[in-house]
Amino acid sequence: MAQKNGIDGRKKPNLLITGTPGTGKTTTASALAEAAQLRHINIGDLVKEKNLHNGWDEQFECYIINEDLVCDELEDMMEEGGNIVDHHGCDFFPERWFDRVVVLQTENSLLYDRLATRGYTGSKLSNNIECEIFQVLLEEAKESYQEEIVVALRSDSIDDLNNNVSTLSDWLRSWNMS
Ligand code: DAT
């Protein structure tokens, strides 16, 4: 059977899962990677492991990502295809890398509880809730990629999580067969 080539000539698709922290990116991406036998790349972990940052931001309590180093690190894997990238931002990756961009969204009070459980307080907590209320990641995704490859999925409950993994597995399968 003829294999479809992606935007960049790859034989397997690349998927980006983005959204406000706490919406379920890592949980969804790792379940999907296992179901679809693809590689899960958590950008936050990669940045820490490989020191792809310019130090620690005291105000926002996170590493200052060196976007050029992250893109250089990922280029070969992305060219090969078969990656599920998980990150709370999406505007610095080359547009050609992704065949689909998924934005997870969570109802504000549920998100608040998840982030509070994670130990977020004060402005770190309120900034993230505001980010979700104003749909910052959905806007960023629509500005950075063709609108037809961007999909917003609800991630409030375990049922949502299971449905999202199943929907995305179906999509990955159909990409591989077409
Ligand atoms: P993220 O990677 O977006 O920061 P996560 O995958 O670490 O989010 O999930 C944050 C917490 O919420 C974690 O305890 C698992 C839980 N969770 C994730 N998605 C969920 C969902 N759809 N329903 C209920 N809980 C969920």
TrEMBL record:
EC code(s) of this entry: 2.7.4.3
Catalysed conversion reaction: ATP + H2O = ADP + phosphate + H(+); AMP + ATP = 2 ADP
Domain of life: Eukaryota
Tagged with keyword rRNA processing: yes
Binding site for ATP: 22, 24-27, 118
HAMAP family, per database record: Adenylate_kinase_AK6
Assembly: Interacts with small ribosomal subunit protein uS11. Not a structural component of 43S pre-ribosomes, but transiently interacts with them by binding to uS11.
Record's protein name: Adenylate kinase isoenzyme 6 homolog
Encoding gene (name): LOC113738568
